[in-house]
């Protein structure tokens, strides 16, 4: 894929919508283009968070380790970014991401991602919005699960 094609794809990611084409071209150039087959692990829960991944094509599952084994908590597809929490919080990966289909992606290094956030405050606001939506969804799901446990008498 050509650099200009990658820039066009990055512009489809809501997080990067307000970033200038020149900056996106630099981001695409400094990012690593990666491909995965179905079943491949993009990154593992507990790994060092050294990059974020933008899904350009394909689908992947987000899985966390639970007391009784792995639990699928989300499915991501085109234009999604994943792995940014570990970068922003400077913590280990909070989940494992597994390719569900063939996946084409851009891996954005931690330094490049943080520089982009510093240069584009509107992008930082979008990151906060995405993280707040995820937190809201997780809170709702935990509440529903807790209510089911209470009703079942567990």
Plain-language structure description:
The chain is of the alpha+beta class and 154 residues long. It has a single domain, classed as Sandwich (Jelly Rolls). The protein is built from five helices and eight strands; from the N terminus they run ααββββββαββαα. The protein has helices at 3-11, 21-30, 84-89, 110-119, 121-152, and strands spanning 32-36, 41-43, 51-57, 60-66, 69-76, 81-82, 96-99, 103-109. The strands form two sheets. A four-stranded antiparallel sheet has the order 1-8-3-6. Strands 2-7-4-5 form a four-stranded antiparallel sheet, with no helix packed on it. Helix 4 packs across helix 5. The longest helix is centred in the last third of the chain and has 32 residues, at 121-152. The protein is globular and about 60 Å long. The mean pLDDT is 88.
- What string gives the helices and strands in order? HHEEEEEEHEEHH
Strand order of the largest sheet: 1-8-3-6
User: What is the count of distinct domains?
Assistant: 1
Report mean pLDDT, rounded to a whole number: 88
Strand content: 25-35%
How is the CATH topology named?
Jelly Rolls
Q: What is the name of the CATH class?
A: Mainly Beta
CATH architecture: Sandwich
Task: Give the radius of gyration.
Answer: 17 Å
Ranges where pLDDT stays below 50 over 5 or more residues in a row are none
Dominant shape: globular
CATH superfamily: Jelly Rolls
Provide a count of the helices. Answer: 5
Sheet having the most strands? 4 strands, antiparallel
Percent helix, as a range, is 40-55%
Secondary structural class? alpha+beta
Task: Give the number of DSSP strands.
Answer: 8
How many angstroms separate the termini? 53 Å
């Amino acid at each position: 894929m050509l650099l200009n094609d990658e820039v066009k794809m990055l512009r489809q990611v809501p997080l990067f919508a307000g970033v200038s084409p020149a900056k996106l071209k630099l981001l695409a150039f400094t990012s690593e283009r990666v491909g995965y087959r179905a079943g491949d692990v993009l990154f593992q829960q507990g790994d060092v968070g050294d990059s974020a991944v933008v899904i350009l094509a394909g689908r992947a599952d987000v899985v966390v380790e639970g007391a009784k084994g792995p639990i699928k908590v989300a499915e991501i597809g085109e234009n999604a970014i994943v792995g940014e929490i570990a970068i922003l919080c400077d913590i280990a990966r909070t989940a494992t991401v597994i390719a569900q289909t063939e996946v084409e992606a851009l891996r954005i290094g931690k330094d490049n991602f943080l520089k982009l956030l510093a240069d584009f405050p509107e992008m930082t606001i979008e990151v906060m919005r995405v993280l707040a939506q995820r937190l809201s969804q997780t809170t709702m799901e935990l509440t529903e699960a807790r209510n089911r446990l209470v009703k079942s008498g567990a």
